[in-house]
Amino acid sequence: MDPSFLIPAPDPIPVNWFFLQFLLTITTFLHLVAMNVLLGSACVALAAPLAGPDEQTGPLCRKIGEKLPYVMAFTINFGVAPLLFLQVLYGQFFYTSSILMAGYWLAIIGLLIVTYYAAYIYHLRYEDLGPVRSLLTGAIVLLLVVVAFFFCNNMSIMQLPESWVRYFSGGRGWQLHFSDPTLVPRFLHFIASAVAVGGLAIAVYYEHRRRQGDGSGERWIKYGCNWFTIATLINFPIGFWFLGVLPSFAHNATTLAGKLFTVSLYGSLALAVISVIQAQRHRVYPAVGWALGAIFFMTLAREFVRIAYLNPYFSLADLPVAPQYSPMIVFLIFLILAGTLVWWMVKTVFFAQEVK
Ligand code: HEM
After folding, report:
1. Which residue's CA lies nearest to atom 4 of ligand 1?
2. What is the pLDDT of residues 95-118, one digit of tens each?
3. pTM of the full predicted structure?
């Protein structure tokens, strides 16, 4: 069966696609950074008890537990924005893939609710948990990893309409995409990146405290930087594995998407190397700047790969435009207001608590 017959007709978009793609990229970047901090710091909280007795590692784990519910809220809310833009630009692919894996896709809601509860219990009942604490941290990490795996599956199914025909041979609504050779390296690439950024987030937190005159957490600056360095170094071979299994059309340098992909990818790699060097010198803020740059370029590379995958079926420029600028202007005004409010909330959450 020709899979192009299965692709629904796209809805018209209210403004030029470039504008929506720009917002999709920016908001995906924010979501991925928040997700990395969430999953990565939970991984560190799981592993930290191995680094020393509870009197030493307890304060670090307690601090991570205190921040987890907030970071989870940011991750979910920063996920809503790209979800909207993804639906507007790629709805005909994304809705279909979500339906093909609907059982798992809808399960994400339940998984997130359970994770939220677990994060709050970890934070509010830290002292009472005793030996159950490690089990609970393990459960939080596992649940987040499963959610991430479902997201990777959905992104993989949506960009490969050839796989949709499997619907007719069973597995309705319960499809995972193991037949895609990029699925596992893609997923591992996200997990390693999360562990790296989680470590760096811990280093940032203690660096901030150090600059405020509290040097008691200096050990955790080095600890966080080491997590960042090791996970990033592990991510290099995973990344090259991922690159190796990507179909050649995704990085075909004769196409514009292929050229842009190559530039973004190698730009990202260069920035990642610089951020690791900075982290090893314990220059935390510069390391964060370079690492954010690397994640941004990787997010861009990811968009170019999707464009290349969908190229045989669809091009963004083909989307019908039914201009409606006034809702867009209202949206932008609220975006700026909400952005300011979120920034104020971030500062309040991370700094006001220290005053308390
Ligand atoms: C809190 C747990 C979450 C984790 C661990 C997580 C993880 C991920 C990962 C790993 C990806 C990349 C998938 C890929 O490209 O293969 C992703 C993408 C995405 N996530 Fe999340 N996510 C979480 C929650 C959410 C929520 C609650 C939403 C929506 C409300 C959301 C919306 C999105 C969207 C729309 C994308 C795709 C963006 C794009 O392709 O441009 N995420 N997420």
Report:
1. 148
2. 999 999 999 999 999 999 999 999
3. 0.95
